[in-house]
Amino acid sequence: DQQVKQNSPSLSVQEGRISILNCDYTNSMFDYFLWYKKYPAEGPTFLISISSIKDKNEDGRFTVFLNKSAKHLSLHIVPSQPGDSAVYFCAASGDYKLSFGAGTTVTVRA
Amino acid sequence: EAQVTQNPRYLITVTGKKLTVTCSQNMNHEYMSWYRQDPGLGLRQIYYSMNVEVTDKGDVPEGYKVSRKEKRNFPLILESPSPNQTSLYFCASSPGVDTDTQYFGPGTRLTVL
Questions:
Q1: Tens-place pLDDT, residues B23-76
Q2: Beta carbons within 10 angstroms of residue A34's beta carbon
């Protein structure tokens, strides 16, 4: 049973607008959350992370929000750029293991 | 250049024929891990290693073996591959036992007929 869920398989957004990706988790023992970005024929690359003791972390155009009570996190990309078109994986860390969601494919339209 | 390398990148094999996928990192990382990526399921952790001679099961270890005899290498062994092990496999490493900022290899596409 997947402990990390990304319920939106795809997202299409216009260039310059905000992309919001959502992720839910079930295991309250997770203590670190990460987003990875993946282009075709490449391995995932780390994008941004957040500790369970925080509710927001920002890095340039990328902001991750964590709502522990709802077991929900989201990734905001502002403004979206064509190079952001990729698959985004949400991941949660706990007990030396990493659990991933199924991914959301983001397409940024010109 | 800091990197994680995997070989082979593509492999087609038949059921029951033992195979090994190699993984090597040049960053002196302690933590290494193997994942498989399947449509609709994302990446699932197969095995991980916190240091030399220390390995443990991830979420989907059945049918796989690993070894960590040297810090830089973490091979994935399929003793008797089956068609349900057809998948895209990724090796990853990170500086410490924490699983943040893992560096992933380019992936190995395995097809078992």
A1: 999 999 999 999 999 988 999 999 999 999 999 999 999 999 999 999 999 999
A2: 23
- Which residue from A44, A105, A2 is spatially nearest to B99, judged by alpha carbons? A44
Strand-pairing partners, residue A49, are A34
Tell me chain A's radius of gyration from C-alpha atoms: 13
Q: Which residues of A touch B41 (CB under 8 A)?
A: 2, 102
Nearest to A43 among B31, B45, B106 (CB): B106
DSSP secondary-structure letter at B2?
Answer: -
Taking the Cβ of residue A62 and every Cβ of chain B, the question of whether any pair is shorter than 8 Å is answered with no
Q: Residues of B with CB below 8 A from A41's CB?
A: 106-107
pLDDT tens over chain A, length 110 residues: 789 999 999 999 999 999 999 999 999 989 899 999 999 989 999 999 999 999 999 999 999 999 999 999 999 999 999 999 999 999 998 888 889 999 999 999 99
Which of A42, A45, A25 has its CA nearest to residue A100? A25
